[in-house]
Every structure is written in C-alpha cells, then in structure tokens.
Design brief:
Layout (H helix, E strand, L loop, with lengths): L2 E7 L3 E6 L4 E6 L2 E4 L4 E4 L3 H18 L6 E6 L2 E5 L2 E2 L2 E8 L2 H7 L6 E11 L8 E2 L1 H6 L5 H24 L2 E12 L5 E4 L7 E5 L9 H4 L5 H19 L1
Antiparallel strand pairs: 1-2, 2-3, 3-7, 4-5, 6-7, 8-12, 9-10, 9-12, 10-11, 12-13, 12-14
Helix pairs in contact: 1-6
Bound molecules: uridine-5'-diphosphate (UDP).
Length: 241
Amino acid sequence: MEKSALVYEGKAKKLFQTDQSNVLWVEYLDQATALNGAKKDAIHGKGALNNQITSLIFQWLNEEGMTSHFIKSISKHEQLVESVEIIPLEIVVRNVAAGSFTKRFGIPEGTLLAFPIVEFYYKDDALDDPFINDEHIRLLKLATGKEINDIKHLAFRLNQLLCRLFADIDIQLVDFKIEVGRNKNGKILLADEITPDTCRLWDRQTKDHLDKDIYRRDLGDLIPIYQEVLQRLENYLAKEQ
Ligand code: UDP
C-alpha cells in the first residue's frame, strides 16, 4: 500500500490517499488541543499512544460484531481505514454528568444519569460546534430521519459495549464523542477514533481522570496517563485470547 496526497489535516490526525480509492492512510499526530484549538501543544508520544489505543478498541469492537471504518494498524502511529463520507456531527453519549453537560444544566460533575443520553453537535469550528437537535439536522440536510435513528442506535449499542470493556479494566466510561460516515453503499459506519482524547475515563476506585481532562484542566503530564489506559487494555485483551 502506497501513501499519496494529503486529503485532510485535523487537530490530531493527518489523512492521506492511497493507491486504493476506498482506503485512507491515517497518521496520528503528537499534538493536543483544547478550547476549540485555542490551547495547543506538541506532546511527544501522544500520536502513537492514541493510534494503539483506538486500534485495539476498534479491533475488539469488530470481534463483538460492531464494524467500523478501521482496517488495520500499520505502525505505532499509523493505520488504514475505509474512506467514508463523514457526517458533520459530533455525537456525544453520556453516562455521568461532566464537562459541558454540568455547565448547561447545573448538575454536579459525577452525578450518575438515570439512563444514557445521546447529544448532537454540529461540527463547524467557525460556529463553535453548536448543540443541535434532530429537526435541525434534517433541516440542514446533514442526515435523514432514518440515518439519525441509525446513528442513535449505533451510539447506544456502542455505549453498552464500551461500558463493559472499560468496566473490565476498572474504568468508568463517563462520556464520549464519536463521528460516523456513509460508506460507498450508504451504510452508516463508526469512524474517527475512540481514545482518551474523545472519552472521559475515570478510574473506578480513585475517580482519577485517565483522559484529556488532564490536559484541558492542567492536571499534569498526559503521557503516563494514556500509557496506563493502553497498558490496561493490552493486559485485558491478551488475557481474553
Ligand atoms: N469531545 C470531543 N471533542 C470535542 C468535544 C467533546 O472528543 O470537540 C468529547 C469529550 O472528550 C468528552 C465528550 O465529548 O468525552 C463530552 O464533551 P463535553 O460536551 O462535555 O465538552 P467539553 O467539556 O469537553 O468541552
């Protein structure tokens, strides 16, 4: 497989074309951002950790029957994925109140929600990724009513699987963000990444943050924390085989 033209450069990843039209080459970058890019730092080793974490999770999900755009990891910081048309939505699932949810509804951080909820944000940096509902999504023609239902179904099923995986490594899955895309057959596929950048992960015993809040809230060095998450996943998945 050959890497060719750069097709997209995001805050934490670069995407390249390959010699196969439906396959993209993803390079995870040593970069952390927060506050919609206003806070930005180079963090050596972060790209490799995130690539390894998301690759393990996507592989495990595949074995559990949830397919995604993930094809395979090709180096510590690179992977191949199926090219999909990304739907410009950030889809957030919450199990416990944290972050923007606590501010919006005045509910203290750490409050267990009576049931998991899904929220949509319109992925548009210029508009600061506003909160958006099903009607807005249909009105702006970002997705059809059927696709919105499919996305919610996918998000809740993924939440069940991820809660189980993380509970088994003594981590509470507080919330997470995913992105989805349409493949060439129009099927909605899980895409992007599942990493401590995109999830809130709390140690079940100590309630310590094992995620990007370390960086957002200046709580210390992010690298040993991400290493800890990778280590727990590796140990657990090695035992499962
Ligand atoms: N999140 C993300 N990218 C974003 C915004 C949020 O990956 O641009 C993730 C975040 O890590 C958390 C969840 O989505 O796991 C919910 O984030 P929230 O809405 O609470 O926003 P935040 O407090 O991170 O601004």
